[in-house]
Structure formats: C-alpha cells, structure tokens
Amino acid sequence: MEKPRKTAIFSQVPTLEEPRIDANILIRLLQVAIDRDFEAAEVALLKTLIQDPCLNFQAVADKTGYQMYYLRGQVGPRLWADFTEVFGRSYGAEIGKRNFGDFIHCFLEKLSLMPNSFLQQDLEQHQIAQIFEPGEGEWAIAPSESWFYGRSKELDSLGKLLSQYRLVTLIGDVGVGKTALAARWTERFGAKSFDRVIWKSIAHAPEPDILLNELLQEFEVKELPQKLSEKMSVLMQIIKRQRCLIVLDSAESLIRTTAITALDPYTSPDYGRMIRFFAEEPHQSSLLFISRRRFNDVLRLSRANRAAATMRLEGLQPKEAQRIFEAHGLKNSSDWQRLIQIYAGNPQYLISISEYIQTVFSGSVQEFLRCDTVIVPDIVCQEYITQIQEINAEHRALLFHLAALKDPVHFDQLVVNLATSMKSQSALIKALNDLTEMNLVEKQQNNAILFGLNPIVKKVILSFPFIGGS
C-alpha cells in the first residue's frame, strides 16, 4: 500500500469557534504526519472521538460497531503510540485517550495561525509534525486534558492572582485538576496577559543551578553565567523587561518529606533563596508553582507584603461532576451524589470510576454501590504509595493508625493511642499539620475537631501494608 506522502490541507482552516470539524481532513493530515494509512477501525475511532472526545470506549463501540475491548486494547494504543512518537515532544505530553480532544483542539489552533501560503501547499510529513513547534514570540503549548468540566470561578480566581502577585502557588490533591486548570488558563488567556509563557515540569527535582540554566536557555541566553546569584540576576532582568509567566509543574518535588521541614524545607537550600528573591524583587512577571503541598515561604511572604499568594483547588461542584457521569452514559442519577461524596468530587477519580462502572456494570451506579467498595485508579495509587514511602516513621505510624479506625477521632484520643510511637504532643501536632498539608489527613470540624482519612487514602494504606516500612 502506498504511503500518504503529502497533502494539501484546505483553503480555509476551520476555526475553534465553528460547531463542526471536518474529520476527514484531520484524519488525512494525521495519516501524512505519522507516515502510514489508517485501518478502518482506526478511522472509525478517530472520527468518533474528533466529534466527541468525551465518549468512552463503550460508547465509541456502540456507534462504530467494533468491539469495545478491541478498540481499547489494540486500536487505541497503536494510535496513541504513533501520535506520541511524532507529536509528543512538541505537544509537551504523551498523547492518549484522555487528552486526545485537547491535542486536536491545539492542532487546529496551530493550523489557524498558519499563513494561507502554508496551508494551500502540498505538505509533507515533517512539515505537519512540526506544526506544534513554537516560533518567534510564541510559547509552547502546556500539557492539558480533554476532560475539563466547569471551573469558571477557579479560572477567574487564578487569573486575578496572576495579575496581582509575582509568585502564586496552586495546590491541591492528586488528580483534582491543578495542571488541567493552569493549562486551560494559559491556553485561553496566556497570550493575552503575558508576552511569554514558559511551562516546565520539575517532577525530577532538578538542582536550582540546572533549573535556572534551563529557564535562561528558554529565553535564548547564549552565554550562561557560572554563579547561581548571577543566573538569578540575568533572569530577573529578563522578567523585568518582559511580562512573562513561568509555570513550574509538580513543584512538590522541591519540598523535603523526610527532614525537619521547618528548618530545612527544600531539597536544596538555594530554592528558598530563589523563591524569596523572585517574590520580593519588583518585576512585571509571575511565577506559578503547581504543587500537592503548600510552600511555607509563600505563606509567610503573603502575610508580610502581599507579593505572593496560594490558591487551593478543591473537587468539582455536583453539577460539574455530573457532567462526567453524563459523558460516560452512567445510569441511576439519584445515586450519583453518593459517588461524588466518596471521591470528593475529584475529576480524575470520577472519570476512572465511571469507566469501571460502564465496563463492568454496563453503567449501573446502583450495582457498583451495592459492592460497597472503593476503587483507586492505578496511577493515583502509585502516587500515594510513593508519597507515603517518603515520609518519616512517625508520620507513617499516624497514617496507619488513622486507617485502622472506623471513624475520625479527636486529638486527645490520638495522644492516648499514639503514646508509644509519638515523642510528644508537639510531635503529633506537627505530624497532623504536615499530613494535612499533603492532603493525606482530613480535618472535620462540627461540634469538635476530628481527624481521619478520606476513603482513597485509607484504601491505599490498607491494601498495601508494605508501605509502612519496617
């Protein structure tokens, strides 16, 4: 079979505001980009998802006539692997079912910025594959997700903070949508509000010196200074001249979990120095840290001179969460609120559990709830295991004690129960504070203040007792 070597796109690129997308044209472009023809099942899957990326595999199967397990297990993975190989680096994320809608959205957006002379020529593979490459004055597309429900108030709040403060931290639980919210804001408003947007994941906890080098290279600084202070000064001069947004994702990697955090909170002491420098020195730019944990330096700065602020992202509101269930075709809407309560409105949890319910129980929420169990998505489970393994022995003892309890408990009872594993009441207070900040312990406040675990954390701890260590 002859490979699709090149193609003319079309005289008029569909804009993002148009209600319909020409799926055939998009599929032809994607075929040229990955340098092979799609099979019939791949075309069917792509056409259906281009029109409605929120559909699950069962819904796609119903529309196309192919078996759900075939689409999910064979057809989809091959497409995602090919797209990631060609577009993954320039798009900024691995491409899969969950962010396919966003990938297509960004693809069309980039096409709409191309001149007509580019669009009307016969394009070859490398030209289409490079559509995501940022040109002069552009910024790389931030990673995002096709699932994004509501959050209009949160988008507005984040925008106000970024317009008022030099340093902002966006914190929240695993899967609550911190990265998706920040990415959606930069997608919609970044180019209008800032001259330049730079997005970097620092999950690998780079040394401050290396991180500064990478940021300076993003600004095309040719000769990098040797000393840390000089690098900070050069970056400061840049963000004084230009209005820039620098987003550092997975910033919790910079916070130590096994040390005396009040005295030595960061993986490198220079990070504290950098945070204070970029918050206190006047400039016209903003730094956004996306993190599961709060930065105490940011909290202190916000109290002192309002140069910094923290925004905590909570779960979805019920109406927003219900849109996830509707998109997945779940039944028994009267039981949906119970699901929202169990999973605290966390969108990643709700999407995963909806897929389980659709596949195993044909969409019946009632049948799933009858099992009286909690399912933790694999990726979320692994993140919690890693997080718990990194904390010290006293903190783990507290978590395992709370997991063994049926109901939340008062502080006084914890003092009695943990008399042998906690050195003092002050140690218990610090442990509760740290674990609450890490979103591992929940505090309930009605007539009395009680401490416990949410169902997800409890399930992980009870299912994987080895994370308790020796």
From TrEMBL:
InterPro entries: AAA_22, P-loop_NTPase. Keywords: Plasmid. Residues 165-260 form the ORC1/DEAH AAA+ ATPase domain. It comes from the Bacteria. GO terms for molecular function: ATP hydrolysis activity. This is ORC1/DEAH AAA+ ATPase domain-containing protein.
